[in-house]
Each structure stands twice: as C-alpha cells, then as structure tokens.
Amino acid sequence: MLHLDEKRFAGEHVLDFQNGDTIFREGDECREMYIVQRGEVHIIKKTPKGPLTLARLHKGDFVGEMALLESLPRSATAQAVGRTRLLVLQPGGFLLKIRRDPTLAFEMLQRLSRRIRVTNEKLLDALNQDPSKETLRTILQSSEFDGGQK
Q1: Which of 1, 3, 76, 80 is in Cβ range 3.0-4.6 Å of 60 for a Cys bridge?
Q2: What fold characterizes domain 1-100?
C-alpha cells in the first residue's frame, strides 16, 4: 500500500468514478497508472469461461503500472466498485515523482514483490490440487524470471 499524504501527490490529477464505471478496458492503449484514494477497484480478465476477477484493490493500492512501465496495451479491465477516487500518474510525471521521492519506488517494489509471492503461492496450491498439473508446472517454469523470452 502506498502512503497517500497530501504533499506526496499534490498537484496530481484526480478522477472520480461511480459504481460499475469502467476505468480502462483490456486492450486499451492508455499508459496512466492509478492510485486508489477512495473506494475499490476490481481487475477483471476475459477468459474462455467468462470474466475472472483477478484482484480487488483498495485505498493505497495501485493499478496500471504494467502499461505504464512496459508501454503495452492493458492486460485486463479495471472497474470501480462504489464511489471511487483515483490519483492519475502519467509516465513522465511518474518518473519525476520517483526522482523526487525514491521511497515511492521502494514502496511499489515491495507491493509488486508481494503480488508475485501471493500469485506463486496460489499457483503452487493449485498445482498440488489440480489434475492438470503439467499446465501449471509450465506456467511456473516460464515465469517472469525468464526475462519475458519465449
């Protein structure tokens, strides 16, 4: 969770959303990153079996960092739950913010590390329970540690 004191994000653009509003859609080309100030955001991925909620984000959580850092289309859809307020960070502003406040980068790295750890734990649990172990084993063996090489 990122600390949201007023000084840290003074001057940043803020967006308000109502329950059910789409913040961005899977495949969108936008590159902004958002930090939840109020409300909740659900991250939803299209699958052959229907939509799958990947995450529920709350105050201090961030979303959109993948598109911001990698300049790739959105990998999932973000939807507001309840009245939601988000801080908006543009790529250039994000870099400037990190230069001025390196602890922001450290806090983000901690959160990203936790996300990876939790995902790995869930994959390992599924690997121990699911009969299609080979698919999960392949996912684990070709994780982010291969540098994105296929």
Answers
A1: 1
A2: Jelly Rolls (2.60.120)
